[in-house]
Amino acid sequence: MLQVRKSQERGYADHGWLRSFHSFSFAGYYDEAHMGFGNLRVINEDRVAAGAGFGTHGHKDMEIISYVLSGELAHKDSMGNVESIPPGDVQRMSAGRGVMHSEFNHKADETTHFLQIWILPKERGIAPGYEQKQFSDAEKRGKLRLVASPDGSDGSVTVNADARLYAGLLDGDEKASLSLDPARKSYVHLVRGELEVNGQKLSGGDAAMLEGESQVSLAAGKDAEVLVFDLAA
Q1: What is the rounded average pLDDT of the residues 80-94?
Q2: Any idea where the Pirin N-terminal domain is (predicted)?
């Protein structure tokens, strides 16, 4: 089974300094039909205005991934990490038993565009942790590059969750596929461009939810950037 959810069906919030699309229920947006998918709980597509950001706030027992698309995101947390996250970097923060952090766009004339992703942890109450790695466009061109996994395989960041995250760039005749366990779930989020997922056409911001499928096949990309999640049911 494959179900498409169009970009315009997502929740939306405009706070002036922050414009955010919510794939699942979050903050003031509530939709009981979209509380998450498998152990994927949040995908927020955020645009943070120049000179603005999220003040210090806390998280607990959540695996949080930041995927920057343009601009830069400055990160500071109670573990002592002070980092800048540019496009191409994948940042993972395990909130564990509790962490405080802030995120800011220090650019004077550029919006920061990024995806904030939350995945439910497989173990609660662990020590908080942080990891950040760069994945070049060449690693993602015409293929699905593993960027997050439970065991850090293939140089991916390590998440305390039964989930794997792949990123890909596809254009023209480029194709990519991923074998799936039909007992699990898969979620495809098209970041930008156009792409066919198992024959279904998606545009930027659209998503495909797959259940009982043995493969996800990606083709007919037009400047497409895509994230594919392999998730616990």
Answers
A1: 96
A2: 6-119
Instruction: For residue 163, give both structure tokens.
Output: 């989930």
Same domain as 141, residue 93: no
Q: Is residue 1 part of a domain?
A: no
Long-range pairs of 9-13 with CB within 8 A, sequence gap ≥ 24: 10/45, 10/205
**What's the predicted TM-score (pTM) here?**
0.97
Q: Which of 105, 134, 163 is the last residue of a domain?
A: 134
* Residue positions forming the annotated binding site for Fe cation: 57, 59, 101, 103
39 CB neighbour count, 10 Å cutoff: 19
Q: Summarize the annotated binding site as residue ranges.
A: 57, 59, 101, 103
Counting every residue written for the chain, the total comes to: 233
Do 221 and 193 touch, CB atoms closer than 8 A? Answer: yes
H/E element, 13: strand 11-14
Q: Which of 66, 67, 74, 111 has its CA nearest to residue 93?
A: 66
**């919006």: which residue's tokens?**
111
pLDDT digits (tens, 9 = 90+) for 100-154: 999 999 999 999 999 999 999 999 999 999 999 999 999 999 999 999 999 999 9
CATH of residue 216: 2.60.120.10
* Model pLDDT for residues 187-201, shown as the tens digit of each residue: 999 999 999 999 999
